[in-house]
Amino acid sequence: MSTYLVAWVVGEFEFVSGSCYDGKLPVRVYTLPGQCHSANFALECAIEAIEYLSQFTSLPIPLPKMDLIAIPDFQAGAMENWGLITFREVTILANPTKSTSAALQRVGYVICHELVHQWAGNLVTPSWWEDLWLNEGFATFLGEYVLDKLHPEYNRWLTFLTQHLNHSFSIDGMEESTHPIEVKVIKADDVDDVFDTISYSKSASVIRMMFEFIGEESFRKGFSSYLKKHAYANAVSEDLWEALAESSGRSDLTAMMKSWTQQAGFPLVSVKEIKSEKKEDINNENERVFELTQQRFSKKNLKKLIDIKQKGKSIDQKDEQQQLWQIPISVYALWKGYEKPIKVSFDLKDRKTIFKIKAPIKDCADGIKESTLLWIKLNAEQIGYYRVLYEDEQIMNELSNELKHEGKQYSILPQSDRMGLQNDLFALSEITAGELISFPFCLEFARAGYQNEDSYAIWSDLLSNIRSRMRIFIEGAVNLAEENEQLNKFGKEGNQELYKLNNENVRKILQNYDQWTIDFIIKKVQELNKKDDQISEKLNVQGGQNLEFINNQQLKNLLVGLIIRSGHKSVTQQYVNEFDTKILPALSQFHKELIKKSSQKEKEQSVDENDKIQFELRKEVDERLAIAVNSIQSERRGLCFCGAVESSNQSQSVPGQYEISSLRRIALFAIYKCTSPLLLPNDRNTALMYLCRFTSQEQIQSMMNLIIENEEKGIKRQDCHHVAFQLSGIAGCAKKQWQWFTQKKEIEGEIQRPIWNTLKSRMAAMLLSYFVQYASSSIVPLDYNDSISQEVDEFFKENSKLLPPYAVRKSLESIKDNQVQWQKSADVLDWILKF
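The structure corresponding to this sequence follows.
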């Protein structure tokens, strides 16, 4: 047993209990006193997952007991200590009648993930950290696999695409800061740097591809054989490939998988149709011929591709020596007259290959006919770890028409393919800064093809892709307008590299973007409102919650939340009213003093009778507040929090609104700091997220100050990086936040960074790294001489020994990419101003 898996927990706890294996394995979930009522969902999920995994691996857990425990303040989301798994409260405590579907899914997934570790990582441990993916990749993939088996109504494989596949693409596409799955780790102190998206999400995505490639049963047998052979010992990647190759009968599996685990990045597969020049083949719809080309998805390679397409340059011989992957290609092809697409599969091992699709023969009333090809879609169901570029406009038009599904109730394209199409398109636009595919074209493609979309996961991914590009554009526009306003005060010309922006232009940009957003989604919201009653009536008859109900509920919350943030007053008002009438009356004077106290210096106090009175008082007022929060239906709570914030932001300049805005902010902080066990941890997290979205300069500064307060008065150490992430998303705030926490002061004759020093003393190394990455993610230097670029470089040089190398490179590359995106934003500005 590895020493990193040993744990003790000492404290006052309560527990709920059950058992597996006909009572032979006790299973308990421990909580702080008073929280046991929120542990039953976790207990049920843990028991079911242990039973399922034991059957899947043909190996029971070789322990006398299995305990899971909720920790109030914990660096990681959870830790798989053998037989005593520790969790943050938010990743294990949930209540099916009071929690949102998203909160229940999060708890279910984290529990399944950590229980997979009892086999992958604990029973069989990697020989060294370079094979960390054998732990985290399998725990991520099988965690989702098991949760899907236990709760198919969650539709987890679609969520997998957003949370793992697409997310890992965005990180793995950063060629200067990514790394292979099997990454060299020289000393154990460096291991924090590789507990990242590559080791978790990319590894899981590659395992999923392999799982589909060899089949479920071959995978199960091979994984079980690997565990049995190396139980209570160490293993390396080759040990796994050997077991899976034997179970699947694929002797080429090791070579194939090494191409994915031993080199960084991933391939872009370009497809174009080859038209025959032979007279007899013209307009031959019965056989279509396509050429596939693979190359690494990178800025350099796509720049070369643009030069070839636009400037007629020839392919450099060096390009033929680039990385190659052994890619399992799968293609969906829909033929006229068929209800479902036909799937074609083959391997792409070389730089290029040709494949043909021949029309199926169909019996018709007037004889045998061959059909016409309507469209093809590469990477069927997004199983492969690669992106796709359709070089022919005709193919994209055919797929766009299918997405619209005019005259049909549903698109024939599976949900995963509908998600993949838009995600690849936006990614190609982003990495080429609009040179290959413009951002306005992506928006038009989305508007034309996705306004009838019903899937929450697809809408979530699509809107995230739009926000990602607009976030950088708006941050740059706000910074440029402020710079130009300053220059104009001194009678100087403003920056005209993009446009001569001022604050009035920026207000118009924000208003137009909000209006475009509302126009884009309002029809779908109205449609969902009509569906609500129909689905509720159906569930009352059938009982329980099904996939359609959960999907519609999550989708409605997503879109209504976006409408609120876009300034739709009538929609916002109904949620503000509920917040003001239910939450504000529950605020006590004690709660109103919370933020005030956080700005005062801590005084030394002894524990006396007055402290006990204060404790009892807080217990009473926090319980009242928790009851008030719980009186709002679980799926509406976040929208009420959102409405309270956005209503306050929109009325900053309205006389008499300052007091109500302050009360709403106090209420959210009080919910975050609430000590009552009646309040679920997810509600505290949601309150914190919206607390960070007040946009007045005074409120932003107050929020930043709370990061460096002590645990009792300010933000928990485990949550500080989340605050940095939220603040970086406020227009114009990224630069201010960075300059705030990196500011220099002379202290006792020495130049220091006092706030940074406080953060270093508060946060563990991994969370500190996350904080810096999130705080820098939206920085947009306006040009190469921008002072912020110099400040960032200087800061990272100073902290090169403290911050992990990959994290530093990722931050620097992200800032550089933001700068390029901003400087090539003329088409975005034209689009938004003309809207």
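Residues 267-384+386-453 form a domain with the Immunoglobulin-like fold (CATH 2.60.40.1840).
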